[in-house]
Amino acid sequence: MDQDLQQFDAVVIGAGQAGLAAGYHLSRAGLRFVILEEAPRIGDSWRARWDSLRLFTPARHDALPGLAFPAAPDAFPSKDQFADYLETYAQEFSLPVRTGTHVTGVRRAESGYSVSTGDGNLNARNVIAAVGANALPRIPAAAAGLDSGVLQLHSSQYRRPSDIPDGDVLVVGAGTSGAEIALELAGTRRTFIAGRPTPHVPDPVLRHADAAYWRFVHSVLTTANPLGRKVAANFHRRGAPLIRVSVKDLERAGVVRLPRFSAVAGGQPAFDDGTSRTVRTVVWATGYRPSLDWIGGVPLTDWGGPITRRGVVPELPGLYFVGMPFQYSLTSGLIGGVGRDAAYVVDGILERSSNGVPAPTQ
Question: Within a 10 A sphere around the Cβ of 40, how many other Cβ atoms?
């Protein structure tokens, strides 16, 4: 069949954990679908992260539907181990993933949606965008005023301490990623970290009360109740809690804590208390923002994410999202939470389908 005329019940965009979880449920439902992945290999977005990165959740919460993660439950898998798991997952369930496929646009069409790619167009009654919220590095506008002699890189570009030139380093952003990078850099140079840390989940909680903690963040902190909605409202301003690394760890390693970065003074970073520091390198651990302008007509929040009801876009029937932060619960953006959201979205596809396929029991 000509590629311009390919018809699917669903096209999934993105073969990360969210896209593969959606594929699992679509396969169980017997629907005709394809998963489009821009990278040449499944898991490459994880392989590209910094060398020492380990997942922030233990292996017991790092499995997708139907396949346990091959590690001790309390272990924190490396990025490469998880990338390999994603590849194995797609093979285990024979998911139809097309790698090296760049999606350039999604627009409404008579039969549902037209998905434009570098290899032609695909038509589908439904589209599941599983592209996450980490498409574009978020860097403060004031960064442009830093002296040209200051090396700047986003955390997505950081790989290892040996790549950083000699001299003092400032890490901007005190979430888990920023804290772990600062801790690693402190072993070879004077390191500063700027920002207000998020609350820390104590290690004993993860070791001894992990099941209760997971039930709380997975089943209590949801948009279905007032407490969850209150947390969700502030989530995109504060971020996730510190896991596995704490402020005390930073202090023990000699990392110097600073107030929030707020401006540039004399070509160097300055902070909320009016002070400034002379540094050779700045690592921006300031997070990401979504890039969804290629999806025609999708309504967006003030932080750039899609406006949905548990991943369903009411204004665009047949368009869904999986893997967005706090899409339904605090775990929606975590590996262990995408399976539930994917199942909900696929149930929605089945409900509006005209082929009479019953929704699977969850």
Answer: 9
Q: Which of 324, 330, 288 is nearest to 307 (CA)?
A: 324
Residue type at 140? P
Q: Which of 147, 167, 139, 138 is nearest to 264 (CA)?
A: 147
| pLDDT tens per residue, range 268-296 | 999 999 999 999 999 999 999 999 999 99
- Record the pTM: 0.91
Q: Which of 67, 60, 59, 69 is nearest to 91 (CA)?
A: 67
Q: CATH homologous superfamily of domain 138-198+239-284?
A: FAD/NAD(P)-binding domain (3.50.50.60)
6: pLDDT confidence band, cut at 50, 70 and 90?
Answer: confident
* pLDDT tier, 263 (very low <50, low <70, confident <90, very high otherwise): very high
Residue-wise pLDDT tens digits, 85-138 = 999 999 999 999 999 999 999 999 988 999 999 999 999 999 999 999 999 999
User: How much of the chain exceeds pLDDT 70, in percent?
Assistant: 94
Q: How far is CA 241 from CA 162, 179, 275, 329, in A?
A: 28, 11, 27, 14
List strand residue ranges (DSSP E) for 259-360, in order: 261-265, 268-271, 281-284, 288-289, 319-321
Q: Residue 129 in contact with residue 290, Cβ under 8 Å?
A: no
Fold classified for 3-135+290-352: FAD/NAD(P)-binding domain (3.50.50)
Please answer whether residues 275 and 233 qualify as being in contact, where contact means their C-beta atoms are separated by less than 8 angstroms: no
* Structure tokens belonging to residue 1: 């069949």
190: pLDDT strictly greater than 80: yes
Q: Which residues make Cβ contacts (< 8 Å) with residue 158, sequence separation at least 6? A: 50, 181, 283
Q: Is the pLDDT at 335 greater than 80, yes or no?
A: yes
Distance CA(323)–CA(239), nearest Å, equals 15
Q: Could you tell me where the beta strands, DSSP code E, fall in 14-72?
A: 33-36
Topology alike, domains 3-135+290-352 and 138-198+239-284: yes
- Domain regions of the chain by residue span: 3-135+290-352, 138-198+239-284
| Alpha helices, H only, 186-306 | 203-208, 210-215, 226-238, 247-252
CA distance between the termini of the chain: 35
Residues in the chain: 362
